[in-house]
Design brief:
The structure is a single chain. About 45% of the residues lie in helices and about 20% in strands. The protein is of the alpha+beta class. It folds into two domains: about 70 residues, Double Stranded RNA Binding Domain (2-Layer Sandwich); about 45 residues, Arc Repressor Mutant (Orthogonal Bundle). The radius of gyration is 21 Å and the shape is elongated. Helix 4 crosses helix 5. The chain is built from five helices and three strands, in the order ααβββααα. The N terminus is likely disordered.
C-alpha cells in the first residue's frame, strides 16, 4: 500500500500525542498474580500488559511507538482516533409507518419529543451492549 501525502508528513511524535482511547482488562498469571491488559481501541493489534495500570500505560506507549514506526517504514496507513465532536447531530432515519406510529405514541406517553425518545432507546441499547452510558 502506498503512503498518502497526509501520512508522509506525520511522524511518531504526532501519533503518540493523539487522544487514543483504551480498554483495560484484568487477568492473573501463575507468577505474580494480578496483571492488567491494555489495548488501544482504534488499533486493536496494539496491546500490552503490566503488573499495574501505570506500568501497562507505560508499556502501551512503547508498543504504540514501535507499531507506528513499523507502519511508517512500510508505508501502511495508520488509523487515527475519531473526534467525537466532529459529528453532526443530524441522522436521516427511515422506518416503517407502524414503527413511526409506535415511537410517536411512546414519545407522547413519556412527554418527550420523537428525537428525545429515539435517543433514549438508542442510549439504553448501547448501554446494554457495553455497559457505558452516553
Amino acid at each position: 500500500m502506498l503512503m498518502d501525502i497526509k501520512t508522509a508528513s506525520k511522524d511518531v511524535s504526532y501519533y503518540l500525542n493523539l487522544p487514543w482511547t483504551y480498554t483495560v482488562g484484568q487477568d492473573s498469571d501463575s507468577n505474580s498474580g494480578k496483571i492488567y491488559i491494555l489495548s488501544i481501541n482504534e488499533l486493536p493489534h496494539v496491546m500490552t500488559d503490566g503488573s499495574s495500570i501505570a506500568e501497562a500505560f507505560e508499556s502501551i506507549q512503547e508498543a504504540l511507538a514501535l507499531y507506528v514506526e513499523s507502519c511508517l517504514c512500510e508505508g501502511h496507513a495508520i488509523a487515527e482516533p475519531v473526534n467525537r465532536y466532529s459529528f453532526k447531530s443530524t441522522i436521516a432515519y427511515r422506518t416503517t409507518s407502524e414503527r413511526h406510529h409506535r415511537l410517536t405514541q411512546e414519545a407522547t406517553k413519556r412527554n418527550l419529543s420523537l428525537s428525545q425518545t429515539i435517543d433514549t432507546f438508542i442510549d439504553e441499547a448501547l448501554a446494554g451492549m457495553d455497559g457505558s452510558k452516553l
